[in-house]
UniProtKB/TrEMBL annotation:
It is a multi-pass membrane protein. This is ABC-type polysaccharide/polyol phosphate export permease. GO terms for cellular component: membrane. The lineage of its organism: Bacteria, Pseudomonadati, Pseudomonadota, Alphaproteobacteria, Hyphomicrobiales. The chain crosses the membrane at residues 46-63, 70-90, 96-115. Its main location: membrane. Keywords: Membrane, Transmembrane, Transmembrane helix.
Length: 120
């Protein structure tokens, strides 16, 4: 197999991991604006910690090729929930970023599985 695809997959995965790591930090140390958004969406005051833990887990799982599909899948689920939350609450200004990250997560998931299968 050409080495370009595994390198591209790893690069996208590491960038995605960095995004989720920053997201985990931002959800652990929540700004007043984001706390207000969580409250407006109907989530309890502690829910941002759940989001932070899931984002941190996704970030760590994305770093290694063996766990990358699980990390990408977990990240996709977190982002799908974020997209759904913003759309259900008609908060369209906040739906673009999670939509893009959802697409990247699904891309990394597909590429990771393809590379794994090609190397088997």
């Amino acid at each position: 197999m050409n080495k370009t695809l595994p390198i591209l997959t790893a690069t996208l995965a590491w960038l995605l991991a960095a995004f989720f790591l920053f997201g985990a930090y931002g959800n652990t140390f929540l700004s007043e604006e984001n706390a207000a958004a969580y409250a407006a969406w109907g989530y309890p005051g502690w829910f941002h910690y759940v989001t932070a833990a899931l984002e941190l887990a996704a970030a760590l799982l994305l770093l290694r090729a063996i766990t990358r599909p699980v990390g990408a899948g977990l990240g996709a689920m977190v982002m799908a929930a974020a997209v759904l939350t913003t759309l259900v609450n008609a908060d369209y200004d906040h739906s673009t970023a999670p939509s893009v990250v959802l697409l990247v997560s699904l891309t990394v998931l597909g590429l990771s599985l393809f590379v794994r299968r090609a190397n088997a």
